[in-house]
Structures are given as structure tokens and as C-alpha cells.
Specification:
The structure is a single chain. With 306 residues, this protein is an alpha+beta fold. It has helices at 5-9, 17-31, 40-56, 59-68, 104-114, 121-134, 152-157, 223-228, 282-294, and strands at residues 86-90, 98-103, 144-150, 159-165, 168-174, 183-186, 196-202, 208-211, 214-222, 230-235, 241-246, 255-258, 268-275. The chain has a four-stranded mixed sheet. Helix 2 runs antiparallel to helix 3 and helix 5 packs antiparallel against helix 6. 15% of the residues are buried.
Length: 306
């Protein structure tokens, strides 16, 4: 026979709903299988705590247990629908009577014959409903939400981060491509066996910028490099460096694409930023002016406001 649920949870018989809930959460957290991997005794204790809470957290079940215990009237009603249920009722002492292992409908017919056709459908139907209520699942613990800040590269390429939850360290696997504000659900990892919702915050990167699955890297060029063209070694997400050819005449704001070098099939873009110096002396000014005469240009041609 199962242990007294009050004894299992360590509460008094007049304990309040809040006292019962508090005791359950404490014990469920202590004996949760995730905190006791491979410990069969802890697993059995956890199930016992769940069963006790199932009774004491339900007002009807608790009242029935307080009145009859485990072997009282509730035991006489089986599960499985109206035809699969049995009825047990008896009276003690001389002349007493007992009906047991009888189908509920048959018991109803017998009572109608004994009491002159009186209708006992409500009595037996109510017992059927009681049996249905016994099959309800234990209440699900509330969700617990927390935030975790993860490195930019971990969010982009995936990995594992360690979180400290309820006084314990928990390794959380981060799938590649998660975004800022996205939530991960960790079933049963919160206090008292509740589900844990982890809201992710992503740290900014020193030089990469992210837009969806694409990655952007700003690359400064000198004026001669932009005019004449050049080659630049640039970093990528996986830590390798690629040599990118910049064509002659590349302007600030131009983008060069590295296909497939972004997040989960996205691209990496090189954003060009041309740094223009002021003439250091008169000779430098003359050379720039000569260059402008040899390469005439109207940069504002075609803009709507010109």
C-alpha cells in the first residue's frame, strides 16, 4: 500500500495549499532525475512525491483520502468507462450485506428492483465521474524564465554555454543561428521540476555585424587602394582568413560578397570604406588636381536633388 501522502511530503494534515505546494517543490527539486542521474532510489522517491502531490493538491482527492484513506470507498470504483467500472458497498454486523466486483449498471438495476423502481442513475453516474477524475494528470509546475548572454560566435555557429540555475551549473546546447531575444525551452530544468525558458541575449562582436543570416565586415581602404585596386586579407566566422580582390575604382559603401560564409548558408559581405587624406603639401595638391583633369568625374550626376 502507498505511504501516507502527508508523510511523503512532510506536512501536517491541516497543511494549507501553499504549504503543500512549497513542500512538493522542495522535494521534487531534491529528487529530480536530472539532479540524480542513474539513482534508482531517487527516481522512486521522485515518483512517490509526485503521486502524493497529485492527491493533496486536488481538493476532491484530498477530501476523499482524508475520509477513506487508500482502501475506502474510492477503491470500489474502477476505471475504464461505465461498463468497465465496478461497485463495492457493504454493511457490517449481523444481517449486513456486501456487493462487490459488480458492474455499475448491474448494481443500478439491482437497487431499482430492491427499492421499487427508484432511479439511482445519479448515484452511479457520479461514481463513474469520480473514476474519470482519478485519471487526471498531476498539475504541471509553472514555467520559470531567465536570461542568458552568449557570445556572438556561439550564437552564429552553435556551441554549449554553462548557466547557473538554482544553485547548480547547467550545460545548455545552443543551436547554430539563434537570434537575440529567442527563447529555448529546457523541460524540467527549472526549480521544482518546472520548465525553464532561457531568453538569449547576444553579445556584440568587435568587428562582425549580423543581419539575419548574413555577416558584414567593414574594410577600410586608402585612396590609392580604392583607385588602383588591391588585395585584402579578411577574417571569416570559422576563424580562417580569405584574400579578397578589390577592383580598381571601388567607392566607399561598395559591398563585395563572400558566398556561403555567413550563418547557416548566409553570405559574408565586405563593406568598403575609403579613407581620404588631406593634401600634405602643395605638390600633393598639384598632383590631385592633375589627376582630376585627366579623370573628369561628376559624382552627383543623376542624384534626384542635384
Amino acid at each position: 500500500m502507498p505511504r501516507d501522502p502527508y508523510e511523503v511530503l512532510g506536512v501536517k494534515r491541516d497543511a494549507s495549499e501553499e504549504d503543500i505546494k512549497r513542500a512538493y517543490r522542495k522535494l521534487a527539486r531534491q529528487y529530480h532525475p536530472d539532479r540524480n542521474p542513474g539513482d534508482k532510489q531517487a527516481e522512486a522517491r521522485f515518483k512517490e512525491v509526485q503521486a502524493a502531490y497529485d492527491i493533496l493538491s486536488d481538493k476532491n482527492k484530498r477530501a476523499q483520502y482524508d475520509r477513506f484513506g487508500f482502501t475506502g470507498a474510492d477503491e470500489g470504483v474502477g476505471a475504464g468507462g461505465p461498463r468497465g467500472q465496478t461497485f463495492r458497498w457493504g454493511g457490517g454486523g449481523p444481517g449486513g450485506f456486501t456487493f462487490e466486483s459488480m458492474d455499475i449498471d448491474e448494481a443500478g438495476d439491482l437497487f431499482r428492483r430492491m427499492f421499487g423502481g427508484a432511479d439511482f442513475s445519479d448515484l452511479f453516474g457520479g461514481m463513474g465521474r469520480t473514476a474519470g477524475r482519478r485519471a487526471r494528470r498531476a498539475p504541471v509546475a509553472e514555467e520559470v524564465e531567465t536570461e542568458a548572454t552568449i557570445p556572438f560566435l556561439t550564437a552564429a555557429t552553435g556551441g554549449t554555454v554553462t548557466l547557473r540555475i538554482d544553485g547548480r551549473e547547467l550545460g545548455v546546447k545552443i543551436p547554430a543561428g539563434v537570434e537575440d531575444g529567442q527563447k529555448l525551452r529546457l523541460a524540467g530544468q527549472g526549480p521544482g521540476g518546472a520548465d525553464l525558458l532561457v531568453k538569449l541575449r547576444i553579445q556584440p562582436h568587435p568587428y562582425f555585424r549580423r543581419e539575419g543570416k548574413d555577416i558584414f565586415l567593414e574594410v577600410p581602404l586608402s585612396l590609392p587602394e580604392a583607385v588602383l585596386g588591391t588585395k585584402v586579407d579578411v577574417p571569416t566566422l570559422d576563424g580562417t582568413r580569405l584574400t579578397v580582390k578589390v577592383p580598381p575604382g571601388t567607392s566607399s559603401g561598395s559591398r563585395l560578397r563572400l558566398r556561403g560564409r555567413g550563418i547557416q548558408g548566409g553570405d559574408q559581405y565586405i563593406e568598403i570604406k575609403v579613407l581620404v587624406p588631406a593634401p600634405a603639401d602643395e605638390r600633393s595638391r598639384q598632383l590631385i588636381e592633375e589627376f582630376a583633369r585627366l579623370n573628369p568625374q561628376n559624382p552627383r550626376a543623376g542624384v534626384p536633388w542635384a
